[in-house]
Design brief:
The chain is an alpha/beta fold and 374 residues long. It contains 13 helices and ten strands. The strands form two sheets. A seven-stranded mixed beta sheet has the order 1-7-6-5-4-2-3, sandwiched between helices. It has a three-stranded antiparallel beta sheet with strand order 8-10-9. α4 links the parallel β2 and β3. The longest helix is centred in the C-terminal third of the chain and has 19 residues. The chain is globular. The two termini are 21 Å apart. 47% of the residues are buried. The structure holds pyridoxal-5'-phosphate. The site of pyridoxal-5'-phosphate has 14 residues, from α3 and α4.
């Protein structure tokens, strides 16, 4: 049988090995020079001045909402169609995620639904750029200004994206959080970064990621509550090497997305990711289709696996997780667009080095399963 095609695979080459080995041999494995180098290089790439590298996207979200001013008992408006971390981080601080439905085209939180959901208890907004497609941040910025709310962008999936007004996703001057897990556009194995609007906010985040120690404080002196959310120098070295090939990797993802789009566009009932519209530009992260209504997704996953192709349901609706149902009383039917999309979504193998032949195999397997179910 031909080789199994996995869902994701990072691009790792000689440069990654070189920088990691160099760092390993330097003996400076954490809080060394690679940290600042990676932050500067990532910031330069993004066009943002104040970047704090952290141990994960989740850690970054936690620090970002604290810096934004979240407090126990606050309501924060966010999307139910996301990776669970964007809602969980609110629970760490005793805030409540208030979900609203998504836009059926972009799959991002609807700005109108968010505006309707604001109450006296709302203090913040946490939109997510899902699957790398830019959320309508200009609308969220207006809402935040009108209702005196804070705004944190979850840009974990959207490296390489751009807004219609010319701004790079994550570099609009809002607190924004990227993630560098192994399946992301750029990886540090585990890791993330917070983009801050000011040097003051960056200083707070740098301190809180390092147990509350301020930059100019002495050894083991701590002036606030903090965490261990540091990113080590080996991870930063990996990130530096990845940054050098980021354009090439993004182009690789866009190429694969183009091939899938061409090959799957005519499958009846299948929804492919929306094309860029109105000047917004997706930073390609995953290739997620919505299966036609009535197609059994679990059976599809099994049948594709039998054909040597990995495929996974992605993403489930957060409010329908048992933990969220039990804690907040959520139930089916609350967010119909999200629930319909979540029930039919299937991620296909997607990484820069997928060959034309592999894409063909994935497409053939999917077509066979959908068009001629057993
Ligand atoms: C939208 C979104 N938010 C947050 C995260 C959390 O990032 P991490 O896994 O690095 O903690 C992810 C990671 O997959 C994500 O996709």
């Amino acid at each position: 049988m031909s080789e199994f095609i996995p869902l994701a695979r990072p691009v790792i080459g000689a440069r990654e090995e070189e920088l990691i080995l160099e760092t390993l041999r330097s003996g400076r494995l954490s809080l060394g020079p690679r940290l600042g180098e990676f932050e500067s290089a990532f910031g330069a790439r993004l066009g943002a001045e104040h970047v704090s590298a952290v141990s994960s996207g989740t850690a970054g979200l936690h620090l970002a909402i604290r810096a934004a001013g979240v407090e126990r008992g606050d309501d924060v408006i966010t999307t139910p169609f996301s990776f669970v971390a964007s809602a969980n981080c609110l629970l760490y601080e005793g805030a409540r995620p208030v979900f609203c439905d998504i836009d059926p085209r972009t799959l991002n939180i609807s700005a109108e639904a968010a505006a309707d959901a604001v109450t006296d208890r709302t203090t913040g907004l946490l939109p997510v750029h899902i699957f790398g497609y830019p959320a309508d941040i200009p609308a969220f910025e207006r809402l935040a200004a009108d209702r005196a709310l804070w705004l944190v962008e979850d840009t974990c999936e959207a490296l390489g994206g751009g807004h219609a007004d010319g701004a790079t996703v994550g570099a609009r001057g809002n607190l924004s959080v990227f993630a560098f897990y192994a399946n992301k556009q750029l990886t540090t194995a585990e890791g993330g970064a917070v983009v801050s609007p000011s040097a003051e906010t960056k200083e707070r985040i740098d301190s809180e990621r390092n147990q509350g120690r301020a930059r100019d404080m002495g050894w083991l002196d701590h002036d606030r509550l903090g965490f261990n959310y540091r990113l080590d120098d080996l991870s930063c070295a990996l990130g530096l090497a990845q940054l050098e090939r980021l354009d090439e990797m993004l182009a690789g993802r866009a190429r694969v997305a183009g091939l899938y789009g061409e090959a799957l566009g005519d499958v009846e009932g299948l929804t492919v990711p929306c094309p860029d519209e109105g000047g917004d530009r997706r930073g390609w992260f995953v290739y997620v289709v919505q299966l036609p209504h009535g197609v059994d997704r679990n059976a599809t996953v099994v049948a594709m696996r039998e054909r040597g192709v990995d495929a996974k349901p992605y993403l489930p609706a957060i409010h329908l997780f048992s933990f969220y149902r039990e804690r907040f009383g959520h139930r089916e039917g609350e967010f119909p667009v999200c629930e319909d999309v979540a029930a039919r979504s299937l991620a296909l193998p997607f990484f820069p080095e997928l060959t034309d032949g592999q894409v063909e195999r994935v497409v053939e397997a999917l077509r066979e399963v959908i068009e001629r179910p057993a």
